[in-house]
């Protein structure tokens, strides 16, 4: 048993703090009639929107046809799982706006050329923190017994 | 520099092994004209499909209107990031098929009633392993100097 409430909502401030702490999120987007989902490196642009980089001709550019996207980060630390889910609109950045992204900590983990910069404008953001109920983790034999 | 190729494709067997090792994935689905994305606890059903549980009336039941879904797991261990992305079709299980899911290690982390069992049939599965290029992690000052 625990004294923690099982689930609490995060404030917008807590959501942005969690987004700042993460480098890997998952982006869901429309491609024709299908929903697609990819892990992406991202950065936060002025607590206002997210930015990602992608390659010319990538599947991900399907989002230029239908801007409606969803984005998620999550994290599990000990018995606490947190997640932030965003719904928003994606659009490609050009010129000075795209160049400005070089100043953000947007660091692709894979060394390939990704000249296209995409911003995700946030329409809705929901953060949740769960105090986990995982009794099976406590069923291990006590090594001192 | 590294001797590893930066990205390798995982075999189906490696994808299923990774899915077995994970308890938390992310599910993207259509809800009317929008794409939605939620973290979900899941289990593998006989290396053939995934199963999840949800509550009556949950947003996630949008997938009963449009079965087209995408699902993702990922993991970062040291300098290696792996992910599996699935595209498939979701449908609710009933009766004996739903009861059989009680035998799988489908263990919701949050203690709430989730009587609805949903299977995700796998149409396409793509696994990737990236040997990460994160030079900034190696830019820390050497504590011995």
List keywords for this structure.
homodimer, 145 residues, mainly beta, Pnp Oxidase, Chain A, eight-stranded antiparallel beta sheet, 2 helices, 8 strands, 48% strand, elongated
Describe the structure in your own words.
The structure is a homodimer of 145-residue chains. The first copy, chain A, is mostly beta strands. The first copy, chain A, has a single domain, classed as Pnp Oxidase, Chain A, CATH 2.30.110.10. Chain A is 11% helix and 48% strand. Chain A has 2 helices and 8 strands, in the order E-H-E-E-E-E-E-E-H-E. The first copy, chain A, has helices at residues 12-21, 95-100; strands spanning 7-10, 24-31, 34-41, 43-45, 49-54, 68-77, 80-93, 116-131. In chain A, strands 1, 2, 3, 4, 5, 6, 7 and 8 form an 8-stranded antiparallel β-sheet that branches. The longest helix of chain A is centred in the N-terminal third of the chain and has 10 residues, at 12-21. Chain A is elongated, with a radius of gyration of 18 Å. The relative contact order of chain A is 0.25. The mean pLDDT of chain A is 88. The interface between A and B is large, with 36 and 36 residues.
């Amino acid at each position: 048993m625990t004294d923690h409430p099982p689930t609490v909502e995060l404030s917008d401030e807590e959501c942005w703090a969690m987004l700042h702490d993460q480098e890997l999120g998952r982006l869901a987007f429309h491609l024709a009639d299908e929903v697609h989902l990819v892990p992406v490196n991202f950065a936060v642009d002025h607590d206002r929107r997210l930015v990602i980089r992608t390659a010319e001709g990538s599947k991900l550019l399907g989002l230029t046809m239908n801007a409606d996207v969803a984005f998620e980060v999550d994290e599990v630390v000990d018995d606490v799982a947190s997640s932030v889910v965003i719904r928003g609109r994606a659009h490609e950045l050009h010129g000075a706006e795209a160049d400005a992204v070089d100043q953000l900590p947007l660091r692709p983990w894979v060394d390939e050329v990704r000249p296209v910069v995409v911003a995700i404008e946030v329409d809705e953001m929901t953060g949740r923190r769960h105090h986990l109920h995982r009794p099976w983790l406590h069923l291990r034999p006590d090594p001192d017994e």
